[in-house]
Design brief:
By secondary structure, this protein is mostly helical. The chain has one domain. It has four helices and two strands. Strands 1-2 form a two-stranded antiparallel ribbon. Helix 1 runs parallel beside helix 4 and helix 3 runs antiparallel to helix 4. The longest helix has 54 residues. It is elongated, with a radius of gyration of 26 Å. About 6% of the residues have low confidence.
Length: 180
């Protein structure tokens, strides 16, 4: 197999002389496939996490409300139950506060939206490449370079957005910890 390293059976990196259009097509297709799979996974994970935190806060909030409503009527039958129910409600309230703080810091919803946006951009690049190649496998190298630059720009913008969000989140956390 000429495209495999025989020592460890891994794909061999393209040589400098392999700059023909066919290798650029393969490279672009492989990178698009890789990043589309990566951002699908990120989108799904972040959507799940955002929903778990949101749903968890709703459920715990409802349980807290029920515990506080029930505690007054239960005390007649079980003395001291109101203190136990109040303590459980306080514990759940603390958990809801911690979950809200963590979700705000982690910004799973914002990351989910950004992952979806990047994924749409990657799909557009892939579809435009497919359209350009449909019935025309002989595009000039400059056209492949344009597709590659679009891919790099999409990934770079996503990274810059993440750095900006993370920097703002860390700066906000640091400034809220300062005394006035």
């Amino acid at each position: 197999m000429p495209d495999q390293d025989t020592k460890n059976n891994t794909p061999r990196p393209p040589q400098a002389a392999e700059t023909n259009c066919e290798s650029k097509i393969d490279f672009l297709r492989e990178r698009l496939h890789y990043h589309i799979d990566e951002y699908k996974e990120k989108r799904n994970q972040r959507r799940k996490r955002a929903n778990v935190y949101r749903f968890g806060a709703i459920v715990l909030g409802a349980i807290i409300t029920l515990l506080l409503a029930v505690k007054t009527s239960v005390n007649a039958k079980w003395p001291g139950a109101d203190e136990i129910l109040s303590t459980i409600a306080l514990l759940f309230s603390t958990i809801v506060t911690a979950m809200g703080s963590w979700e705000t810091f982690s910004d799973y919803r914002g990351k989910w939206i950004r992952s979806r946006s990047t994924l749409v951009t990657l799909y557009n690049i892939r579809d435009d490449l497919r359209y350009a190649l449909a019935g025309n496998e002989e595009l000039p190298n400059t056209e492949f370079d344009k597709f590659y630059e679009r891919l790099r720009l999409a990934l770079s913008e996503t990274n810059e957005d993440w750095v900006s969000r993370r920097g703002n989140a860390i700066a906000g956390a640091a400034s809220s910890g300062k005394s006035a």
